[in-house]
């Protein structure tokens, strides 16, 4: 573990699941962490409490990243509380599953707003305000390659994230800022588990040669690598942290 004391990270969607694990791991790495949440203040406060009790620094900031002003406010908060921004982890996302023919307009729009526009909003802010040598780490998904029925809209939003990741990496030329994405496979979070039968969960777990679901810690370790100095030569890539499922 490399000490990142003095550096500042924003983690969106950090109140639960992968986002919470990432925020806590970066806190242990030494980052001061802005713990973004959309609505669950209690859960976000628990993440902040975990980080601070371990000797770190953190602050919870409410905001829907699909809103331009809210994305801007995350950077305002980081600069006000901790002096700037060195790492942005775009973890916030929603998944609403349905066949294409049965997808509601509102469900389509909401996934695009949060998963694509939300990632774009914070990256645009990072382009203007991230300090030299920074790291942008976006969240994709293994479904971009699995392409299973009912995942059309969600997979499309994550494919868009991967495209923006590679383009943005090229646009950061000359600033020593890397831009990458991580693409988890089935991971044991509320987002993944909700609405699935035990049989479905078991089947998805067995798809990986490692025959288990990923854990939030598995993904947080990958993000820590991409956010730290050891990942400095990885740029414009999507790291498929999925246990070999694809």
Structure explained in plain terms:
The protein is globular. The chain has a 7-stranded parallel beta sheet, with helices on both faces. The chain has one domain (8-185, 217-239): NAD(P)-binding Rossmann-like Domain (Rossmann fold). The chain is an alpha/beta fold and 246 residues long. Helix 1 (17-29) runs parallel beside helix 2, helix 1 (17-29) packs across helix 9 and helix 4 packs parallel to helix 6. It is built from 9 helices and 7 strands. Helix content is 47%, strand content 13%. The two termini are 28 Å apart.
| Mean pLDDT across residues | 96
Cα separation of the termini: 28 Å
CATH class: Alpha Beta
SSE pattern: EHEHEHEHEHHEHHHE
Q: Please give the order of strands in the largest beta sheet.
A: 3-2-1-4-5-6-7
Strand count? 7
Helix content: 40-55%
Structural class: alpha/beta
Q: Please name the CATH architecture.
A: 3-Layer(aba) Sandwich
Contiguous low-pLDDT stretches (5 residues minimum) are none
Percent of residues in beta strands?
5-15%
Morphology? globular
Count of helices?
Answer: 9
Name of the CATH superfamily = NAD(P)-binding Rossmann-like Domain
The count of domains is: 1
CATH topology: Rossmann fold
User: What profile does the largest beta sheet have?
Assistant: 7 strands, parallel
Radius of gyration: 17 Å
């Amino acid at each position: 573990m490399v000490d990142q004391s003095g550096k500042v990270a924003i983690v969106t969607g950090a109140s639960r699941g992968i986002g919470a694990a990432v925020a806590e791991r970066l806190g242990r790495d030494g980052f001061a962490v802005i713990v973004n949440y959309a609505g669950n203040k209690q859960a976000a406060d628990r993440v902040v409490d975990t980080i601070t009790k371990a000797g770190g620094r953190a602050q919870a900031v409410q905001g829907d990243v699909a809103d331009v002003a809210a994305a801007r406010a995350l950077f305002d908060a980081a600069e006000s509380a901790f002096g700037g921004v060195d790492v942005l982890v775009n973890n916030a996302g929603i998944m609403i599953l349905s066949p294409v023919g049965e997808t509601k307009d509102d469900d389509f729009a909401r996934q695009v707003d949060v998963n694509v526009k939300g990632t774009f909003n914070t990256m645009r802010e990072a382009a203007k305000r991230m300090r030299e040598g920074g790291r942008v780490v976006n969240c994709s998904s293994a479904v971009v390659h699995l392409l299973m029925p009912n995942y059309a809209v969600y997979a499309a939003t994550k494919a868009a994230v991967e495209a923006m990741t590679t383009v943005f990496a090229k646009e950061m030329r000359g600033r020593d800022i890397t831009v990458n994405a991580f693409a988890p496979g089935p991971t044991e979070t509320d987002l993944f588990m909700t609405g699935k039968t035990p049989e479905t969960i078991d089947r998805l777990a067995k798809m990986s040669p490692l025959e288990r679901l990923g854990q939030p810690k598995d993904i947080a370790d990958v993000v820590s690598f991409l956010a730290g100095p050891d990942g400095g030569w990885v740029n414009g890539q999507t790291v498929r942290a999925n246990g070999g499922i694809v």
